Amino acid sequence: MAMIEPFAGHTPMQAQRFSPYSDNGGTIVAIAGEDFAVIGSDTRLTVGYAINTREQSKLFRLSDKTVLASCGCWCDVLTLTRVLNARLQMYNHEHQKEMNTPAVAQLLSTMLYYKRFFPYYVSNLLAGLDADGKGAVYHYDPVGHYERNQYYAGGSSSALLQPFLDNQVGKKNMNGVVQEPISRERAVAIVKDAFISAAEREIHTGDAIIINIIDKTGVKEERFSLRKD
């Protein structure tokens, strides 16, 4: 059977692929202590090799005892945080009190699971104080599974920073080390060191760090400059 040759100048049709997601970079880190939690993010927002802004915090204060850090696809971050804030306001009006951190953690998990067939392209860390006043950090996957632990790193530099946190906070792969509760000053110093290291090795992290320190008195904010190239 003879093959039908294409017309002169005709090029074969190529498949066109469209992705609704865009990764806008950014890194987030959180560490929990006995009666406090520290959570931080960088301020760089990127698209590929272009920097959209150097002044965008990725921390969202949900209450006096709960802070959410989100990075990834920035439009999804904004959508998720708007819906979450609306749900929290509804709870406040109905119950005349703020939702505690473990309840916010469960609410966020439910919201992410609801979108499991078209997930938010977002990396989330939730930090705050639980009902007993102890520090808590929650880490999420895109479809809502979450886990509470003492420390986590998320975002574009998470593969670099999680081993660093395992060593410095978790004391893993170390011999003869006694595990002691981490102090607030030490936790803040580790977060700063982590971001300094990430900015040296990963182009989507840089410019500055925003750090929130959560304790029984509320949320305090610190800012620390990083390299800007």
Write the layout of secondary structure elements.
Layout: E1 27-32, E2 37-42, E3 45-47, E4 50-53, E5 59-63, E6 66-72, H1 74-95, H2 101-114, E7 122-129, E8 135-140, E9 146-149, E10 151-155, H3 158-168, H4 184-201, E11 208-215, E12 218-225
Antiparallel strand pairs: 1-2, 1-10, 2-11, 3-4, 5-6, 6-7, 7-8, 8-9, 11-12
Give an overview in words:
Pfam families: Proteasome (PF00227). Its main location: nucleus. This is Proteasome subunit beta type. Keywords: Cytoplasm, Nucleus, Proteasome. It is found in: Nucleus. The structure is a single chain. The chain is built from 4 helices and 12 strands, in the order ββββββααββββααββ. The protein is globular, with a radius of gyration of 21 Å. The model has no long low-confidence stretch (mean pLDDT 92). It has helices at residues 74-95, 101-114, 158-168, 184-201; strands spanning 27-32, 37-42, 45-47, 50-53, 59-63, 66-72, 122-129, 135-140, 146-149, 151-155, 208-215, 218-225. α3 (158-168) packs antiparallel against α4 (184-201). It has 229 residues and is of the alpha+beta class. The strands form 3 sheets. It has a 5-stranded antiparallel sheet. It has a single domain (29-226), classed as Aminohydrolase, N-terminal nucleophile (Ntn) domain (Glutamine Phosphoribosylpyrophosphate, subunit 1, domain 1, 4-Layer Sandwich).
